[in-house]
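Appendix B. Raw example, untouched.
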Amino acid sequence: MADNSTTTIRATFDTRAAADLAVEHLVQQHGISRPDIFVRSASDRNTAGSAPSGGDASHDQGARRDAPLRGEIEVSADIASSQAAAVQRSLGEAGALNVSSR
């Protein structure tokens, strides 16, 4: 009998760029549909991450002040339990600070 159970995997990132990269890994490497992937603040505050990156960083004036850097970003998805180890590795390669599943 095949195991078709699912698990929810969650990963936190310190930049929006890393979270976006993780979403691309989930879609392209693991075939997870974009509507099944959720990106949100890991806390109750609006945030673009906890560190500047990409468009958040200005080369001549330091970090921008109009993008709130108030905490980590969480990426989560429901995946087949059999994918858990491979997805955890991909999230780590994308820069995840923490990865958990339940």
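End of appendix B.
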